[in-house]
Amino acid sequence: MGDTPENERQPVGFRPTRDPSAPRKRLRARQLRQDMTPAERMLWLRLRAYRERGFTFRRQQVIAGFIADFYCHPARLVIEVDGPIHQAQGVADAERDTIFAGYGLRTWRVTNDDVRPRIQDVMARIGAALGGLTP
Fold first, then answer.
1. Would you state the pLDDT for residue 6?
2. Rounded distance, CA 66 to CA 34, Å?
3. Listed residue (71, 7, 75) closest to 43, CA to CA
4. Residues 115, 69: contact at Cβ < 8 Å?
5. How far apart are the two ends of the chain, measured CA to CA in Å?
6. d(C-alpha 18, C-alpha 73), whole Å
7. How far, CA to CA in Å, does 116 sit from each of 53, 106, 119, 130?
8. With 80 as the cut, is the pLDDT of residue 7 above it?
9. Distance between CA atoms of residues 127 and 135, nearest Å
């Protein structure tokens, strides 16, 4: 009676078990929102322009036990702003991207060095990922 029929799938991102680390992750996400890097802050101020077009972005969103820098649910898009530490953790980032893909999410990575001097190019690529929108 409580079983889900086979033809009804659970929504992408559905997690039937409770993650015991979730409260710690939410607290860490809150801290990261307060301590954004200059590149993250610059990008965040521009991502908010998509809100009136129905593409609301969330900062430091916990997804599948990971904290994504920016997440747009309607577009199923994760944006990661990578600093120098990510050069050493490429394998871990690739595994994380694969997990996100398993939830039906696209991950787009950009470096801090790309955001600061080329913010217009970065926004154009994000707009293309959102279906050709410009902020």
1. 45
2. 18
3. 71
4. no
5. 48
6. 21
7. 24, 23, 6, 21
8. no
9. 7
120 contacts: CB under 8 Å, gap ≥ 6: none
Q: Which of 45, 110, 52 is nearest to 77 (CA)?
A: 110
Q: 8-32, pLDDT tens digit by residue?
A: 444 455 454 456 567 787 887 777 7
Helix count and strand count (H, E) for the chain? 5, 4
CA 92 – CA 85 distance, rounded (Å):
11
Quick one: which of 12, 21, 28 has its CA closest to 100?
12
Q: Which residue shows structure tokens 């696209």?
A: 106
Phi, psi of 116 (to 5 degrees): -60, -55
**Both tokens assigned to 32:** 């990261």
Place of tokens 């490429």: 90
- What is the identity of the amino acid at 63? I
Q: What pTM value is reported for the model?
A: 0.75
- pLDDT of 85 higher than 70: no
Q: What are the pLDDT digits (tens) for 38-48?
A: 999 999 999 99
Rounded CA separation 31/29 (Å): 5
Helix (H, G, I), strand (E, B) or coil at 103: coil
